């Protein structure tokens, strides 16, 4: 059985990418098969994920794809991974239309248990 982790935060600029990259690198260096994912249509972070994990990162984007397709992608790419690590988009509940496309809305598409990590908003850490 593999672990499923979603990194979410209160807003953009909260350190999600930094934490995700660190975890991807740590887990892959320790010998775990890690499959990175990114909520939303972000193609820059996925390139960084691939470098840290040593395998391609996959976008989970319900604006450009159906929920069924997102579930299929998650299932296919995550099947052989020890750890599926997904970086959320913007704030946990921020989407392209209200909550549509948000990390919170995409999470149930996987039909797996999720662990939610929330980091403080940037203004709380300054």
UniProtKB/TrEMBL annotation:
The lineage of its organism: Bacteria, Pseudomonadati, Bacteroidota, Bacteroidia, Bacteroidales. This is Cobyrinic acid A,C-diamide synthase. Residues 6-43 form the CobQ/CobB/MinD/ParA nucleotide binding domain. SUPFAM superfamilies: P-loop containing nucleoside triphosphate hydrolases (SSF52540). Transmembrane segments: none annotated. GO terms for molecular function: cobyrinic acid a,c-diamide synthase activity. PANTHER family: COBYRINATE A,C-DIAMIDE SYNTHASE. It comes from the Bacteria. Pfam families: CbiA (PF01656).
